[in-house]
Amino acid sequence: MLIRRENPGDAEAVRAVVAAAFAPYEAARNSGHPGGLPMEVTLLDALRTDSGWLPELSLVAPATAPTMSTASHGGIAGHVVCTRAHVGSVPVLGLGPLSVHPDHQRRGVGSALVHAALGAAEALGAPLVGLVGSPAYYSRFGFEPAEAYGVTAPDPAWGEFFQVRVFERPVPPPRGPFVYAKPFSTIDGG
Questions:
Q1: Where are the transmembrane segments (predicted)?
Q2: For residue 8, what is the enclosing H or E element?
């Protein structure tokens, strides 16, 4: 599966993929009232204008087979982004949102995107990547509970859902509070 860096012309297609991927979750957050823009779209828009945005870590998976809705999402099957975060004063990365259009889910697109993002993060020398997500899903990529490494979540309620993927380096990984790029703390979905 081809994974490539997002091109400037992909932004609207990526927004469409993120909106479609998170629409069911947004409906659940809004007590079953569909139609609201998922907060992940608002977050992605805000991240694009933040100093934590790293264009080289905004990756897309082009759709390999046309579907009825391919035109509605610009031929993009999925998207992932890593943005600048910190553990104490040490620069690290925050992964997410990870989005796969519903027409392309359960076909390995998300896995390919995560593998590509982690490979790029390691190649760029990041000591670790943090995220909030399902331990059952992300453990396959080497993510472990952040507390096992002395990294504390921005919100203690995240518990086991806040995880880190630590890369082998000659120095131990940083310890302390994890701080995402600013839009993560200002976007509340409302």
A1: none
A2: none
Cα–Cα distance, 90 to 59 (Å, whole number) = 24
Which of these, 121, 132, 122, lies nearest to 163 by C-alpha position? Answer: 132
SS3 167: coil
The candidate with the shortest Cα–Cα distance to 111, out of 75, 73, 140, is 140
Specify the pTM.
Answer: 0.89
Taking a C-beta distance cutoff of 8 angstroms, is the pair 173, 146 a contact?
Answer: no
Q: Which of 61, 59, 165 is nearest to 117 (CA)?
A: 59
Please choose, from the candidates 118, 17, 27, the residue with its C-alpha nearest in 3D space to the C-alpha of residue 60.
Answer: 17
Query: What structural domains does the chain harbor?
Result: 4-186 (3.40.630.30)
